[in-house]
Design goal:
30% helix; Rossmann fold; alpha/beta; Hypothetical Protein Tm841, Chain: A,domain 3; 8 helices; 2 domains; single chain; four-stranded parallel β-sheet
Length: 280
């Protein structure tokens, strides 16, 4: 069976991008259900799929975060990867779907898990906000904070890959991807066509889709008056080529195939060679 790709809420399980996209495993309410039930669920997934990759937002509650680490520790398993990149919720949902697309290919669990770090570099995500007064995940200057109290003010914010913030006006623009993408848009309690018209046009997106706003978005952005967006690579063939073009290695600790310098399953980094100076 293919490696299982899990998310922590149903609204992070986007509809399939194509006919090969694997269904997402949803692990809801981890912080409120009995620990024995959560353990049994995760153990069953490992027994069935061999490996489990949990894609989790940094905006989830502390309870969910603690429960995930508790489950992994109690099961004493290096076959559970907890992946929490610094992406807004909608961008993270897109990434989880890309991993579900790749899950149908001939990629080993370690390479598939490592692919998440690689693919984050190709996701451009942000939001249109009515206020940045409570935004703490993107640098906000004092002038922008002051302007956020002016009625009718709106701000375009890019959270990834490079933080940007502009006040919406005739000349407002955000630097976008230099390659062809589709855009996914999730509307909160804000009325505007700036994302779907102005931004999408300036980024020359090749397709536009809408999705429900993830429940974690309000906490991540500091307001419910927003429109979240994410531009991404939709084609499985392109994603597969990106991943397979990167040199693969073997984790010296758990022996699984990986790409990059850290194993997502056991968190081991390559050992230092003789006379090698540690990075940083």
């Amino acid at each position: 069976m293919p490696t299982a790709i899990a998310v922590t809420s149903a609204d992070m399980a986007l509809p399939p991008q194509d006919e090969r996209t694997l269904p997402a495993v949803v692990l809801p309410d981890l912080d409120v259900q009995p620990l024995e039930q959560a353990l049994a669920t995760v153990q069953g997934l490992i027994d069935q799929h061999g490996h489990l990759i949990v894609v989790c937002s940094q905006a989830v509650s502390r309870g969910v975060e603690r429960r995930l680490h508790t489950i992994r520790s109690l099961l004493e398993s290096d076959r559970i990867a907890l992946f929490r990149p610094d992406l807004p919720p909608l961008g993270l949902a897109v990434l989880a779907r890309q991993l579900r697309q790749l899950g149908s290919c001939d990629l080993s669990p370690g390479v598939l898990a490592s692919a998440g770090r690689l693919l984050t570099h190709y996701i451009h995500c942000g939001a249109l906000l009515a206020s940045v007064a409570r935004l703490d995940r993107v640098p906000v200057g004092l002038k922008s904070h002051a302007k956020s109290w002016v009625p009718g003010s709106q701000f375009g914010v890019l959270a990834h890959p490079e933080p940007q913030l502009v006040r919406i006006g005739p000349e407002a623009a955000l630097a976008g991807p230099e390659f062809g993408t589709w855009m996914l848009v999730a509307k909160g309690q804000l009325q505007s066509d700036w994302v779907t018209a102005t931004l999408a046009q300036s980024w020359s997106v090749q397709g536009l889709r809408e999705a429900p706003l993830p429940a974690e978005s309000q906490a991540w952005w500091g307001t419910g008056k927003l429109i979240e967006f994410a531009a991404y690579l939709p084609d499985l063939s392109v994603l597969y080529q990106l991943v397979t073009s990167v040199r693969q290695g073997v984790c010296h600790w758990c022996g699984i195939d990986v790409i990059g310098d850290r194993c997502v399953f056991c968190s081991a980094t390559p050992p230092l060679l003789k006379n090698q100076i540690p990075a940083g």
